[in-house]
């Protein structure tokens, strides 16, 4: 009989935005499901609900219980509004800067936790580059979690190092990303406005610190699977020299309907009602539209989307986030839109059970803002996408989906912007054209078949013996070895 391995304690410290906390919980689940691995998640008082369902008081994974460690968030100290424990871009740039400052002030509580609890590994979000130093004080290896795919990690680093956006004649002129195995073109307008500005900015400094911490840390864990982007997994490790483990798609750690429905928040629609509606539709006949957890669309844009949906004649589920609070005053909604599209379309105001929806056979396409969680959830469900990037690394994700994987159609967004302006909106004609192309264009079958092949690969990667399963095993073995060496 083999000797039982000593318990490994892994602490997760996600950034307090849903796009970071949701996959962190999935990863925590993956680790806790392994033999003799104990898991702690660090969060703040108002974010506990992202991890623990309202009707439960702990997270159980098989026989293990995930510990939750709560840090006080210094909202008042930096002048953030009461109750602001997730970044809200509608508060403006100054407040976002304050949010980052408040996050950095968590370092003292982190050090105290590390000193007292002594986990064997700290998985800290990319936005906490300072966490590497905190962990190093106690000889604890720190892993970075970005929530990016390999392609975007490579593209972002290549753009940062080579600055191919400089010396162009205009913001609209295309340039090729150097040193990549595929020819990927972008314009200066499609890269982050912090790079475009040229001078030192708050975010530019953060990204530089993030990139340095990738190198200074023990390594990087990536929510992707090798077969999806082998060229870029290799490039990231071999050419860019990062130690990295691919462990995704982490959303596939959700097995029950309950877990798939409750991801981050209580949904604004009953999950069974939503599934019943979908089950009344033919396979591949419904378009799902959702722009993630942070991006908010201006009214004019929502109106254009509504007009495009109606003109396309397609069936749809449309998630409108910024309408949740003022459902009565919806100026963007065309008169009697819901009466005219009754039975054909469903608007979810607020939060949708996205994973359950995407996995339903009735879904034929996903209009996405290309947040990596959503993109990978679309890939894992085998659903072709209309790509509609807004900011962050979303324009890179778009290129992966449309140019490399060839499972998407771009809606044609020209400009990266945290808060898109009225002159930047996508017109109804462009939206309608993309909807028609993804649902009935001449490449529909090929695109669907490719998407289904990636779905099969994704599921295989997380099964016992699959590439991501094996990478998690290798990482756990390595961390145990590190821990043993520290003890001797
Ligand atoms: N999500 C959800 N319901 C919603 C909106 C988003 O479950 O109505 C989930 C989605 O499944 C994904 C995450 O929230 O896991 C959003 O992350 P992503 O990286 O796609 O975008 P972000 O919110 O970070 O921009």
Describe this structure in words.
The protein has 488 residues and is of the alpha/beta class. The chain has two domains: 8-252 and 464-487, Glycogen Phosphorylase B (Rossmann fold, 3-Layer(aba) Sandwich); 267-458, Glycogen Phosphorylase B (Rossmann fold). The chain has helices at 18-32, 48-51, 93-104, 107-117, 131-136, 150-162, 193-197, 202-216, 230-239, 257-261, 271-279, 299-312, 337-340, 354-359, 372-380, 394-404, 428-440, 444-462, 467-487, and strands at residues 8-13, 37-43, 59-61, 64-70, 121-125, 142-145, 174-176, 185-187, 219-222, 244-246, 286-290, 315-320, 345-349, 363-368, 385-387, 408-410. An eight-stranded mixed β-sheet has the order 3-4-2-1-5-6-9-10, with helices on both faces. Strand 15 (385-387), helix 16 and strand 16 form a beta-alpha-beta unit. Helix 6 (150-162) crosses helix 9. The chain binds uridine-5'-diphosphate. Residues 18-19, 22, 263-264, 290, 292-295, 319, 351-352, 354-355, 371-374, 377 line the site of uridine-5'-diphosphate.
